[in-house]
Specification:
heterodimer, A: alpha/beta, Rossmann fold, 2 domains, 12 helices, globular, B: alpha/beta, six-stranded parallel β-sheet, two-stranded antiparallel sheet, 14 helices, 41% helix
């Protein structure tokens, strides 16, 4: 079995879905011969040609709006937005059209669309290239939001997203793109949207996370005392998120720490924390803690490591929650 | 080095049947048969009656906000006449009802929609159109994508998209023009330049002399026509459709028309419009000149018109009765239509909607699911 990084696993999923289904179309800025600024679409233009791998004009709303039209007329477009900081211009198309179309037409006009977007900080990028806007879209009904972290999960979830009859935003933690490899089967497989993964089992405390922070959580678990047993959950899908897996875990452990890279206020950690107290109130032995980005702008890269969630902060939260 | 000319362009203006009923035989020959002209006149008349009735429905509390089409019927029917219903697409704004009906949308759908029921946008199988679009100027991008899908499937089907003069100020308008041109998508951009974006006149909306010239920047064939002249509109549309079917990409038509009514029933245009301007445009009403044309051809007269007006009233009454006769939508539908399959949390919220305790299971608020009875 091949050992792939995140970029290669996503590329493989795209290549296989395009080979299998000629309705699958890639469009975006620099996705053609250049293979995308992160090379995620490398080789696809050469294999599938101009009609199916489209270098578009530099206009995010145009990319998404055009992709919506393609989806309304039977195609399965997979547009790429170069960085999450440039999703803003497409917000109107995503929220007011893609997310609404099925409901407002009561199922007559649907938008099976997968919007791929590199997300998050940690690569010393320019301003507006390091944000974490997933909660904005999770708050918008009608669109699913996926954020796999590992190559294996990314391949299976991307195939699910492309085949999904509804619009999906597929966030790719760019910090992980080339920093982690694992075995990824060549054969096709899917991972259901909405299913979390229990990364490691434990009895004393539950850590819920998604995106690149997963690796800081793993580091924090490695640093935890040997007599503490921690369950680590990678949400993988942030909307609709897998409350069943979280609740089952917290009912067992009685303690929960939610970790995400995005800012705290109205972040998804708030929603998870609220649901945990609704579902698991009598099981809780301590308040749910959040370890998140700060309610500041994502700083330019000289200070980005101070902003990003690190293993030390996760470790402190674990320690405090256990000691409560 | 001497200066040279980098680019020049002219934009044609087409008028075939003017407001006095004068008809340009040379340009207009063979464009619209007598039978078609009669049909379009009837359709415009029915649409006008529907508009008048809709206004009364709103005023009497039987319908919500409604945008009248009055005055703009010719641009709708003249363009739709060049399309193949069931094959070609229409991507509308909300002031071209007559075109939608020609594409096969049952008339009561439009009323049902403005009566607050999403099922009015549940486009029937086989009718190629997207629902009315409320955010201004955003839907033309969908036309670019819909057209692209037709193009790579190798069909000859085309996409007509409608929008007002105000919409051409929106960024998405320019992105749609650019994408359609670059992708050679078979789209006909139909601008209904009705002079007013709610209360803002065209002169404050844009500094360009015409709307049509905006297409020049996108390398798109473009023309300005008398939008109240079914012949001029059809003339421009035929050329645009021909280009699109031949794989030559999008075209632009600026149909100069006028919104004879208010922006919507929530608006009062008397606050900002000169009555003299409105009077002048009433004289250019597309229905008046089409009727003059038919009378000059001796295929129409007062008694036929009286009969038509009565028939139109009957049709509209039936349409209103159908729209009002539709049962209230089931509450479940707001949950069921969100995704192909509602996710678990939505199922819970659907179950508990009627407990007035959103997010809780019925059991949590002391109710058994069965006790809720039927869900509407």
């Amino acid at each position: 079995m091949a050992t792939l990084n995140l970029v290669q696993a996503i590329n493989l999923a795209l290549q296989q879905e395009m080979a299998k289904d000629d309705r699958v179309i890639i469009l975006g800025e620099d996705v053609g011969p250049n293979g995308g600024v992160f090379r995620v679409t490398e080789g696809l233009h050469a294999q599938f040609g101009d009609n199916r791998v489209i270098d578009t004009p530099l206009a995010e709303s145009g990319i998404i709006g055009t992709a919506i039209g393609m989806a309304m007329n039977g195609l399965r477009p997979v547009p790429e937005i170069q960085f999450e900081g440039f999703l803003g211009p497409a917000y109107d198309q995503i929220v007011n059209h893609a997310a609404r179309s099925r409901s407002r037409s009561r199922g007559a006009i649907t938008v099976p669309l997968t919007i791929r977007v590199p997300v998050g900080g940690g690569i010393h990028a320019p301003e507006l290239h390091s944000d974490s806007p997933e909660a904005i879209y999770a708050h918008s009904p009608g669109i699913k939001v996926v954020m796999p972290t590992t190559p294996y999960d990314a391949k299976g979830l991307l195939i699910s997203a492309i085949r999904d009859p509804d619009p999906v935003i597929f966030f790719e933690p760019k910090r992980v793109y080339r920093s982690f490899r694992e075995e990824v089967p060549e054969d096709e497989y899917t991972i259901p949207i909405g299913e979390a993964k229990v990364v490691s089992e434990g009895d004393d405390l539950t850590v819920v996370t998604w995106g690149a922070s997963l690796f800081q959580c793993i580091e924090a678990l490695d640093n935890a005392p040997d007599d503490v047993s921690i369950e680590l959950i990678d949400l993988r899908t942030v909307d609709p998120f897998d409350m069943e897996t979280i609740a089952a875990s917290v009912e067992k452990t009685g303690r929960c720490v939610v970790v995400h890279e995005a800012a705290m206020t109205c972040g998804l950690g708030a929603e998870i924390s609220s649901r945990v107290q609704e579902r698991c109130f009598l099981n809780l032995l301590a308040p749910v803690q959040r370890v998140t980005g700060f309610d500041t702008l994502m700083p330019y890269y000289k200070l980005e490591n101070e902003y990003l969630v690190n293993a030390k902060r996760v470790g402190m939260a674990i320690k405090e929650t256990l000691a409560y | 080095m001497p200066k040279t000319t980098a680019y020049t362009a002219t934009i044609e203006y087409v008028s075939i049947l003017d407001e006095k009923g004068n008809f340009d035989e040379k340009l207009g020959k063979g464009l619209i048969t007598d039978e078609q002209a009669l049909d379009l006149y009837e359709r415009m008349t029915v649409c006008r009656q529907l508009d008048e009735f809709a206004f009364k429905l709103q005023r009497s509390g039987r319908m919500g906000t409604y945008p009248q089409n009055k005055g703009q019927e010719a641009a709708a029917v003249g363009t739709a006449l060049a399309l193949n219903p069931g094959k070609d697409w229409v991507v509308p704004s909300y002031r071209e009802n007559a075109a939608l009906f020609m594409m096969g949308l049952p008339m009561h759908y439009v009323l049902q929609y403005w009566m607050g029921d999403e099922r009015g946008s549940q486009i029937p199988e086989g009718v190629k159109m997207t629902p009315l679009s409320v955010p201004i100027g955003t839907h033309m991008l969908h036309a670019a994508g819909i057209g692209y899908a037709e193009k790579i499937r190798g069909t000859k089907n085309v996409v007509a998209t409608y929008f007002g003069d105000g919409a051409t100020s929106e960024g998405d308008f320019h992105e749609a023009m650019n994408f359609a041109s670059v992708l050679k998508s078979p789209v006909i951009f139909i601008n209904q330049n009705n002079s007013w974006a709610i209360s803002v006149p065209r002169a404050k909306q844009m500094a360009s002399e015409t709307v049509a010239q905006k297409a020049l920047a996108y390398g798109m064939p473009t023309v300005r026509v008398d939008g109240n002249d079914i012949f001029a509109v059809k003339y421009a549309m035929d050329e645009a459709v021909k280009r699109a079917r031949a794989g030559e990409g999008p075209s632009f038509i600026e149909a100069v028309t006028y919104r004879l009514g208010d922006h919507t029933t929530a608006d009062d245009a008397r606050r900002y419009r000169d009555p003299a301007e409105v009077e002048a445009w009433i004289a250019r009403d597309p229905l008046i000149r089409t009727r003059k044309y038919l009378e000059a051809k001796k295929i129409w007269d007062q008694s036929k018109d009286d009969t038509l007006q009565e028939r139109a009233k009957t049709i509209v009454k039936e349409v209103v009765a159908t729209a009002e006769g539709v049962s209230k939508p089931e509450v479940d539908s707001i949950f069921n239509a969100m995704y192909a399959e509602p996710h678990k949390e939505l199922v819970t919220q659907r179950e508990t909607m009627r407990t007035s305790s959103l997010g809780k299971n019925p059991e949590q608020v002391g109710l058994k699911s069965e006790a809720l009875g039927t869900r509407h």
